[in-house]
Amino acid sequence: SSHFDFRSHTAADVRPCIGIHSARQTVLSPHAAMSLSGPWPASAGLPEPRGEKRKAHEGELAAMVEKALTDKSPTSGSAPIDRRLENFLTEHLAEVRQGKPVKFPDMVSLHTYGMARAMSFPKNQNSYGNPLIKSYKCQNGVLHNPVNDKRTTVGVFHIAEGGLPIADDKKGVPLAVFNKLLDAALNPPEANMEVPFGSGSNPPARAWVKFMARPLVCPEVPGYTAEKRMEFRLMAPGTMVANVDFLESVFGNAGEASLPENDAALDAEHWS
Questions:
Q1: From the centroid of its chain, how far is CA 238?
Q2: How far from 4 is each of 9, 16, 27, 94, CA to CA, in Å?
Q3: How many Cα atoms sit within 13 Å of 132 on the Cβ side?
Q4: According to the model, what pLDDT value does residue 56 have?
Q5: What does the alpha-carbon distance between residue 41 and residue 77 come to, in Å, rounded to a whole number?
Q6: CA angle, corner 244, sides to 193 and 263, nearest 5?
Q7: Within the chain, where are the H helices?
Q8: I need a surface site. Which of 32, 100, 120, 254 has the fewest CB within 10 A?
Q9: Given this model, what pLDDT does residue 37 score?
Q10: How many whole angstroms separate alpha carbon 178 and alpha carbon 25?
């Protein structure tokens, strides 16, 4: 194998060796091309809506966000995935809750990819900040910088006891402790409910937000097995809507969870 001395070359020499090409030379495998979602900056060599097309796209997202924030119809328990989660938690925590059911608060459903990013910034502004997170629009996308940013998940996840074995790098907690963590999570301080998109209004817009993802966990093997997908629901107080932006950029957005076509239980063949 050939030896490449990075110390004697410029950044421009090194980039092609590690897969970074100029805007005109960017090479993507078919799989990578299909897995990337826009809009992306032209400087990255990826397609980007320009001019009026980009303005129209951003305007559509902003309109969807405004409609979602002004629509006061109740959403708690309206989607099958929410009812499954509420029923499981109510059953699993029955002893420590003395029969009190778990009910999620009404939330704004972010059913379209890009709504979370639009909601993460005040209208017509390029940055947003609060004591928990600072967000910036950048040339190559966005930067969401939480005040407590960790590069590892070790010691972060709390898993309630009473179910499957808990891995050594996770924190196992008694059901009573998890129940208190759950109650605290579902009742955040009012300041944490402020939605960045509506922070300039009077009064500021406050809401919970949620989205659903159904990432692929088993690809289809023709003649042997169909593809399998898991489902998960992310819920966050409005000020942390950037979390939704980050996760849907990784796992995609499965759409409006209350629609039958997006109900995993009605598609048992492809549900893991």
A1: 13
A2: 9, 12, 21, 62
A3: 16
A4: 76
A5: 39
A6: 110
A7: 11-14, 30-35, 51-70, 80-92, 94-97, 115-119, 175-185, 242-251
A8: 32
A9: 40
A10: 51
Place of tokens 């849907």: 248
CB-count exposure of residue 239 (10 Å: 0-12, 13-18, 19+): buried
Q: What is the pLDDT of residue 200?
A: 76
Query: What distance, in Å, lies between the first and last C-alpha atoms of the chain?
Result: 43
- Tokens 């995935």 belong to residue: 81
Closest C-alpha among 35, 131, 81 to residue 235: 81
Q: What is the mean pLDDT of each run of 10 residues along the chain (272 residues)?
A: 52 52 43 38 47 72 82 66 93 90 91 90 88 85 80 72 86 90 92 88 86 92 92 93 91 90 90 86
| 198 vs 193: CA distance, rounded Å | 11
Query: Can you count the helices (H) and strands (E) in the chain?
Result: 8, 10
Longest dimension (CA), the chain: 69
Q: What was the pLDDT predicted at 221? A: 93
In Å, what is the CA distance from 184 to each residue of 94, 179, 189? 18, 9, 9
Q: What is the secondary structure of 38-68 as a DSSP string?
A: S---GGGTS----HHHHHHHHHHHHHHHHHH
With contact defined as beta carbons under 8 Å apart, do 80 and 265 qualify?
Answer: yes
C-alpha separations of 98 from 56, 90, 91, 163, 207 in Å: 52, 10, 11, 19, 29
Return phi, psi of residue 43, to 5°: -65, -20
